[in-house]
C-alpha cells in the first residue's frame, strides 16, 4: 500500500472514529474518557473489562457503541448457575413437542458478532470464565460439529465490585486477557447529575441508543485497519527504552525509588505486567497516537492508556490483594510520576 | 565794712578784662562758620581698650575768617584715658569760604572693670583773620566702654577652667547609615552575581535550571548531543515539579510554580519540540537546537531565581 493511500485511509478512519465518539457522547454524558478508551480498545481489537456500580449506563454505552460500529450485539448475565454450554447453545421444546437446540448467544450471530457483553462476569463460575477466555483469545469455537469463527468479536465484561457473595474472583491470568479495565463512574459534575435525574430522554435507554448514527464504522474492516495503524505508528528507541523502564517498574517498583504510604513497596508485587500486557499497552498507545494525528509514539500516548491497561494485570501479595483496586491505581500513578522518560536512552 | 579802693580797682579791671575777652571769642554764627558734617564711629558700644575711634569733621569758614592753626587739636593729647593719636587737617577754598576737613583718630587707653560711658572730647577751635574773635567747638561723642574681663575677677586662678577631655562627637547615626549603605552595596553585588553567575558557589544558586543551563552550555554541538540537552531540561522540570512533568501536567506545574507562568507558551513549545526530537525526527541543525535550548534554560533559570 502506497504511503499516500495509507495516509488517506488513516485520515478517513480517524474522522470516522472521532465521529463515533461524538455520536456516543450525544447520549452518554460525563463519560468522555471512558468513551475515548473504548474507542481505542475497538481499534486495538482488545477486550474490555468495565468496572463500575449498578445503573451508571454501561449497557447503554455498549449498545450505543455497537450501533455505531455495526454488527451484532449479544449479552449474557453472569449468574452462579450459569454453565459454559449456556453460552454455546440452549434447548427448548419446539412447536412439534420435540426438543430443539439452537445456538447460544455466543454463536447466534456468527461472524457478524461485533460486541459481546458479559454482565457481572465475576458471578459466573470459573468453568464459564475458562470458556469465555479461550474464545476471547482464539476468537473461534468448535460446536455442533463445526468451527464457529468470531473474528470481529470484542468482549466487554462488567465486574460487580460491590457484592462479594456468590461471586468468583477473576484470576490474574483471566484478567490478563482483557486489554483494559475501564472505570465507569458517576459523573462528578452537578449539572450532568441533574440532567441524568430530570432529563426524560435518559429514562428510555432504547430510544436513547437509537439516536446514535448506525454504521459509522464497518465492524468487519476493523481487524485489517487495526494492523494498518500498528504498522504506521513508529516507536523511537527512546520510547522503547521508556516502555521497558515502565515494565520493569511494574515488576520491581522499589528499584525505581517508588514509595507508597502504608505499603512496603518491596513486598507489594507478586507479579508485574506480563509481556502480553505490555504488548497490549503499546498497541493501545499506538491507536491513541493515531487518534492524536501523529505518526510517532509519544510518552503521552502511553500515559493515556497506562492505568487502564496495566493496573488490572498487577498481581499483589496476599496481604495487599484486598486493596488491589486502590493500590494498583496508586502504583501506576507513582510509576508514571517517577520513571523518567529519556533517562536510560541518554546514557546510550 | 569798708572796702579798700585798690581792691575795687582790681575787681573792676578783672571785670573789664573778662568782658573784653568775651567780646574777643564770641561763638561763631552760622554765617561766619559752621560744622557742616560730622562722621562719628559707627559703633558706640562694645569699645575695648586699644580700639581706635575715628571721626571726621567738616567746617565751613567764611572769609576772611580762618581756623587758627594754633588751636588745632594736638596729637598725643590724653584726656580721660583717650589719646588723640592722629590729626589730619585739610583746607580747601571755594566761593569765598574755606572748607576744613579734620580727621581725628582717638585710641582708648582707659581702665575699667565695668562698662562705663565715655566720650570723645570736645575740641575748641578759634577763628582768626576777621574783625571779631570767634570760636567753634567740635561736640563730644559718647560711647560705651566695655572691659575685657568681668568685674569680679580678682585672680586668674579663680577664673581658671579645669582641663577636660574633648567631648566625643556622636557618630552613631553616621555609623548606621554607613552600615546600611554597606549592606545595600553588598546586597546589590550579590544580586548582580546571582543574576549573572552560572556557578553554584552562592546559596540558592544551585537551582535545577541553573544546573541545566550550565550543562547545556558545555555540550558540544554534535549529533546526539541534543538528547542530552533535552534530558537536562527535562530533569530540571522533573526536579522542580517533584515528579515527572509531561505536557499534560503543565497547568498544574504552572499553578504550583507561578514564577514560570510567563513562560507558559515557551514551555509548551519545548515539550512539543522535545517529543518531536526524541520520538519522531531528530533536529536537522543540532547546533542551533542546542543554542536555543541554552537560551530557554537561561530564561527558565531566571524564572527559577525570580529574575525578570
Strand order in space, largest sheet of chain A: 2-5-8-1-9
Class from helix and strand fractions of chain A: alpha/beta
Please report which band the strand proportion of chain A falls in: under 5%, 5-15%, 15-25%, 25-35%, 35-45% or over 45%: 5-15%
What fold name stands as the CATH topology of the largest domain in chain B? Answer: Immunoglobulin-like
Spatial separation of the terminal alpha carbons of chain B? 131 Å
Structural features, described:
The complex is a heterodimer of chains A (348) and B (308). By secondary structure, chain A is an alpha/beta fold. Chain A has two domains: 29-198 and 214-222, Rossmann fold; 233-343, Helicase, Ruva Protein, domain 3 (Orthogonal Bundle). Helix content of chain A is 48%, strand content 15%. Chain A contains 15 helices and eleven strands. A five-stranded parallel sheet of chain A has the order 2-5-8-1-9. A two-stranded antiparallel sheet of chain A has the order 3-4. In chain A, helix 1 packs antiparallel against helix 2 and helix 11 (275-291) packs across helix 12. With 308 residues, chain B is of the alpha+beta class. In chain B, the strands form three sheets. A five-stranded antiparallel sheet of chain B has the order 2-3-7-6-5, with no helix packed on it. In chain B, strands 1-10-9-4 form a four-stranded mixed sheet. In chain B, a hairpin with a 5-residue loop joins strand 9 (123-128) and strand 10 (134-138). In chain B, helix 4 runs antiparallel to helix 5 (225-241), helix 4 runs antiparallel to helix 8 (286-305) and helix 5 runs parallel beside helix 8. The model of chain B is unreliable at 1-24 (pLDDT under 50). The A-B interface holds A 234-236, 238-239, 294-300, 303, 336-343, 345-346 and B 227-228, 230-231, 234-235, 238, 243-244, 246-248, 275, 278-280. Chain B: This is MxaA protein. Chain B: Residues 1-23 form the signal peptide. Chain B: The chain crosses the membrane at residues 176-195. Chain B: Keywords: Membrane, Signal, Transmembrane, Transmembrane helix.
